[in-house]
Each structure stands twice: as structure tokens, then as C-alpha cells.
Amino acid sequence: MSSKLSTTVAATPAEDMAVVREMVNELQDYLLGNDVYHTLVVVTSQGEERIQSSCGDLLARLHKLDGQSKLLTPAQREELVSIQRRLDATTRSMHSRYQALMEREARARLNSLQWYLDDCEEDPKACRVQYPFEIRNRQRIAELVKALGDVLPADIQSETAAIDRRLREMTASADFVWDRRVKDVYPREEYWYLYVLPRV
User: How many domains does the chain have?
Assistant: First the structure.
């Protein structure tokens, strides 16, 4: 197996905008459904793409767009405000469904991280290679936790803390593990797990 790290090429702000726009257009139907992950057909500069989205993915893209606001055109900034307004209105009117879906997603992503960390004990080299890709789950959990705020269930809080303990024990300080063009969006203090790599 290659020892080269998995790459995570950051979507451009225009691509993130296209996904966020489509997700908010379909948000009501998504919240009425039962699936945590939802496939969107989005038109980007690459043509039509099928993209798996979720509450956590939507929040993560909004966070990134907010952090890259200086790269947006005035029209894009205006549209982003409008999208955020529509998101807030929909999630307010469907609050209990939105909250339940965010909780389910946080638990699903915690489980995925747990399985990944278990596999790391078996194969540390593969673990290191896959880290930049797998750690996306942790960043999306962070956005879900922020959105849940005061209503964050105790089990999600304690399981996130347990995952973080395991991550800290098995990693060492490293350069930013994602696309360097988005480094400023994720300060080291808050997103410390993007500045470490598993020891081999």
C-alpha cells in the first residue's frame, strides 16, 4: 500500500455554494425523510455531480464559506445571507426533526470514527494514509455539536471526548492535513485534530 496520505482537495467556494443552495432547496423534504445522508444532483463547473449531503455536511460547507467570505463576489455574499435566512426559517419551523437528525448523524459519525480508530490498532500505516479523509467525520461532528448547543445530548458529548482522548494518544503534531488553501478557515486551537497525524 502507498504511504502517501489520502488527499482532500477543497471544493471551491463556487462549488460549495452550488451544494449549499441545492441542499437548502431540498431541506424540507430531507428533514421529512428518514435518511441521515441525502444524495443531491448538483451542477458545478465539472458538470452534473451526485454529492452525498447531510446536516453536518451543510453546516461544514457553510462554515467554510463563512471563513472564505473574502473570496466571494458581492452577489455570492448576498446569496449566502439569503441561503442562511432560508435555512434558519426551515430549521426553526421543523426544529424537532432537525435536532433529531443532527443527533443521529453525530452518533453515526462517532461510530465511523470509532471503527476507524479500532482499525488503526491493526494497521497503523493504513491508518496514517487514510487519516486526512477519515478525520472529516470529526470536523463535521464539531459543526453539529455547535449547532446543537445547549441541547447537546450527554452521550454525544462524552463519546466525542472519548474519541478525542484516543486521537490525542495515537497522534503527533503535524502540518495541516487538508488542502493548505483552506488552512485559515480551521484555526489550530479549535481544530487541533487537523494538525496531527497518527504515529507509525
Answer: 1
Give a yes or no: residue 64 inside a domain. yes
Say if CB 186 and CB 176 are below 8 A apart.
yes
Secondary structure element (H or E) that encloses residue 57, with its range: helix 55-67
Look up the domain containing 160 and give its range.
13-198
Per the listing, cell 435555512 goes with 87
Q: Is residue 1 part of a domain?
A: no
Q: What is the pLDDT along the chain (200 residues), one digit of tens a residue?
A: 445 666 666 788 988 999 999 999 999 999 999 899 999 888 877 788 898 899 999 999 999 999 999 999 999 999 999 999 999 999 999 999 999 999 999 999 999 999 999 999 899 999 999 999 999 999 999 999 999 999 999 999 999 999 999 999 999 999 999 999 999 999 999 999 999 999 98
For residue 153, tell me if it sits in a domain. yes
**What CA–CA distance (Å, rounded) separates 114 from 108?**
10
Rounded Cα gap, residues 139 and 128, in angstroms: 17
